[in-house]
Design a protein that fits this description.
Layout lengths: L5 E3 L2 E3 L3 E6 L6 E7 L2 H16 L1 H5 L2 H17 L1 H12 L3 H21 L7 E2 L6 E9 L2 E5 L5 H15 L2 E5 L6 H13 L6 E3 L6 H8 L5 E5 L2 H13 L4 E4 L5 E4 L5 H13 L11 E5 L3 H14 L18 H16 L3 E4 L14 E4 L6 H4 L6 E7 L2 H9 L3 E2 L1 E5 L3 H10 L4 E4 L14 E2 L2 E2 L4 H6 L2 E9 L12
Parallel strand pairs: 7-8, 7-10, 8-9, 10-11, 12-13, 12-18, 13-16, 15-16, 18-19
Antiparallel strand pairs: 1-2, 3-4, 5-6, 6-22, 11-21, 14-15, 17-20
Bound molecules: nicotinamide-adenine-dinucleotide.
């Protein structure tokens, strides 16, 4: 294993120590990753600060930043297979899913490159005869980007493409579970010709790396994706130096099937919602609300499909689900399912390792659960679907919204009026209608309630990395009373 290095300003830096990341399928260490220190964090922030305040990056026109971003997009395209393999080996997700993600990432950079030279302020009616007013939209500064393990590069790209277009500099902190692709991305930044200090990386198995980064007074903005508890800690630390934060946290999303739905499509949507990526996705549709009139039919169909899901080597194109990323996560899934069973739930499918051992957990469908039980309230972050019947639209809106979380929801119906009512009533950041688990760079993404705040993607995502400066220009030349507010 060739030891990987961190990128800090112009320097490639090994860790004082290295740690191994483990392939969840083979159980073998496969990459040697730097163990960063507080000094590494400080140096990375200093490099980002210096690149933001001085030097070629801060002087670049939007179109020049855009040219570099497009070059980076081309390099990601060229290296997509290798990056996908790194992610699959780090987190155990299907190689074909990670490949599809890698192939989609360049479009994010191309899209935001297109906005880099269109960051316009406004000319504003100041409400004063003697003042002309305008705004400048300026980059927020040094961004700390903190990432989880489930889709490292895609989730980083949600932040990075917009931050670069805005003119920010970045220190990225990959997850200790899946750091390789993000460390590798820094090499592509070099190859694309970005000035030193624009993109820096600090890795480590010590979770204090993230803490040190967020606490750093020279960090101007924290963009965090991860769990709720960590998100709260991040928001607290950033508040100590009043850095704005955006938080992309977990979910407990409802996938709702009405009796007028195309049942075949809905079943497929329920499967996609919670068994894709072995449920290790923030938008997992982990609570299925199914109208009582079609409850048996839909549950039987979902359970049949769940039982037929092919688990195996994530690199095998026939596999539909790989292992869970690490043993702590398997234990969490197992505990939540076991507790639900003790609580009276019925396991309709799965509920075990599926006979594969290791870090596998079979696609699991659980019935006879209450919406206020732990399995329906806590994020499992695994392939576990809780199914609940409902009778009326009002009832299902209340059940869906009765959650700490508010990331996403799916609605399956052919009634357009119902679509509009549901879209308004669900307290979430995204509603998919007759679809599930679709994202793109143009559409704002983010949560409400315990799913976080702030938005990524679209022009809303760009705004997270900009702030408005108001310019007042006196036009009369008169001298005014200095003791009255103007
Ligand atoms: P996590 O919260 O455990 O860790 C996320 C990152 O934060 C890691 O890099 C970790 O090292 C770092 N970290 C840990 N303690 C920190 C601290 N005190 N200060 C700063 N950083 C710290 O999350 P995870 O287990 O890696 O990822 C799974 C979670 O991420 C799930 O809850 C999932 O829903 C969420 N997630 C959300 C989205 C979204 O866009 N909403 C996307 C993917 C994953």
């Amino acid at each position: 294993m060739k030891p990987l290095q961190m990128k800090i300003g112009p320097e490639w830096r090994p860790g004082r120590k290295q740690f191994d990341t483990v392939d969840p399928y083979t159980g073998e260490p496969w990459a040697s990753v730097p163990e960063g220190t507080k000094d590494d964090v400080n140096d990375a922030v200093a490099a980002a600060r210096s690149a933001f305040d001085r030097g070629p990056w801060s002087d670049m026109l939007g179109k020049e930043r855009a040219a570099l971003m497009r070059r980076l997009a081309d390099l990601i395209r060229e290296n997509a297979d290798e990056l996908a393999l790194s992610e699959s080996r780090d987190n155990g997700k299907l190689l074909r899913e990670m490949r599809a993600q890698m192939n989609s990432i360049p479009a994010w950079f191309d899209y935001f490159a297109g906005s880099a030279d269109k960051i316009d302020g406004r000319v504003i009616d100041t409400g004063r005869r003697d003042y002309f007013g305008l705004t400048l939209r300026e980059p927020v500064g040094v961004v700390a980007a903190i990432l989880p393990w489930n889709s490292p590069l895609l989730l980083l790209t949600f932040k990075l493409a917009a931050a670069l277009a805005a003119g920010c500099t970045i220190v990225a902190k990959p997850s200790e579970q899946a750091p390789v692709s993000i460390l590798r991305l820094a090499e592509l930044f070099d190859e694309a010709g970005f000035p030193a200090g624009v993109f820096n990386t600090v890795s480590g198995s010590d979770r204090r790396i993230g803490e040190w980064l967020v606490q750093h007074p020279d960090v101007d903005k924290v963009s965090f994706t991860g769990g709720e508890t960590t998100g709260i800690a991040v928001a607290r630390s950033a508040a100590e130096h009043l850095a704005p934060v955006s938080l992309e946290l977990g979910g407990k999303s409802a996938n709702i099937v009405f009796p007028d739905a195309d049942v075949h499509a809905a079943v497929n949507g329920l499967i996609a919602g919670v068994f894709a990526a072995a449920g290790q996705t923030c938008i997992a549709g982990s609570r299925a609300f199914i109208h009582r009139s079609i409850y048996e039919t839909v549950v039987d169909a979902v359970a049949d499909r769940a039982r037929s899901i092919v688990m195996g080597d994530p690199k095998d194109p026939q596999s539909e689900m790989g292992p869970i990323c690490f043993s702590g996560q398997v234990a969490k899934i197992r505990n939540l399912v076991d507790e639900a069973i003790l609580d009276g739930a019925t396991v309709v499918a799965g509920g075990s390792d599926g006979g594969l051992g290791g870090l596998f957990y079979a696609p699991t469908v659980i019935a006879d659960v209450r919406n206020d039980s732990r399995i329906c309230r806590e994020e499992v972050f695994g392939p576990v679907l809780a199914v609940l019947p409902f009778e009326t639209e009002d009832e299902v809106v209340a059940l869906s919204n009765d959650s700490r979380y508010g990331l996403a929801a799916g609605v399956w119906t052919s009634d357009v009026r119902r679509v509009m009512r549901m879209a308004r009533s669900l307290r979430v950041g995204t509603v998919w209608v007759n679809g599930y688990r679709t994202l793109n760079y143009t559409m704002p993404f983010g949560g409400v309630k315990a799913s976080g705040y702030g938005r990524e993607n679209g022009m809303e995502g760009l705004s997270e990395f900009l702030r408005d400066k108001a310019i007042w220009i006196e036009t009369s030349g008169d001298v005014r009373d200095p003791f009255i507010i103007g």
